[in-house]
């Protein structure tokens, strides 16, 4: 599967969650490529914007869409990496912040891993 083909998976997930894929196709393709590379490297589609620790209990939280995505989209209009966005962002009614807090990094730092 190539990044272009993987976008169908992204669209299906977004639709099932009530989200939208990022309207910037260049970003989408770059992130899809990162997800596919992580699947090849680790056997799972870990978020390409996060560090894989090798600890399954921690890393399972960053299998795309990560456990943080829903709250990030609700609070900021996009998930951490920007693969998924809210309807308002997709329609240009809202501009998400350039950066949002990385709660997964906070988990790693506070867990001693």
In words, what does this structure look like?
It is a single chain. With 113 residues, the chain is mainly alpha-helical. It has one domain: Alpha-Beta Complex (Ferredoxin Thioredoxin Reductase). Helix content is 51%, strand content 4%. It is built from six helices and two strands; from the N terminus they run αβαααβαα. It has helices spanning 3-17, 25-42, 56-59, 69-76, 87-90, 103-111; strands spanning 20-21, 84-85. It has a two-stranded antiparallel sheet with strand order 1-2. Helix 1 packs across helix 2. The radius of gyration is 14 Å and the shape is globular. The model has no long low-confidence stretch (mean pLDDT 94).
Key structural traits:
two-stranded antiparallel ribbon; 2 strands; Ferredoxin Thioredoxin Reductase; single chain; mainly alpha; 113 residues
Per CATH, what is the topology?
Ferredoxin Thioredoxin Reductase
Mean pLDDT, to the nearest integer, reads 94
* Uncertain regions spanning at least 5 consecutive residues: none
Q: How helix-rich are the residues, as a percent range?
A: 40-55%
- Approximate shape: globular
- Strand order in the largest sheet: 1-2
CATH architectural label: Alpha-Beta Complex
Question: Brief description of this entry?
Answer:
By secondary structure, the protein is mainly α. Helix content is 51%, strand content 4%.
């Amino acid at each position: 599967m190539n990044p272009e083909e993987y976008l169908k998976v992204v669209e299906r997930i977004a639709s099932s969650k009530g989200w939208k894929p990022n309207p910037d196709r260049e970003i989408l393709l770059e992130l899809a490529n990162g997800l596919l590379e992580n699947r090849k490297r680790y056997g799972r589609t870990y978020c390409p914007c996060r560090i894989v620790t090798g600890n399954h209990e921690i890393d399972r939280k960053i299998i795309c869409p990560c456990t943080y995505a829903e709250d990030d989209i609700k609070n900021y209009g996009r998930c951490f990496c920007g693969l998924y966005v809210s309807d308002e962002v997709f329609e240009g009614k809202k501009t998400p912040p350039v950066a949002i807090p990385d709660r997964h990094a906070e988990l790693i730092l506070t867990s001693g891993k």
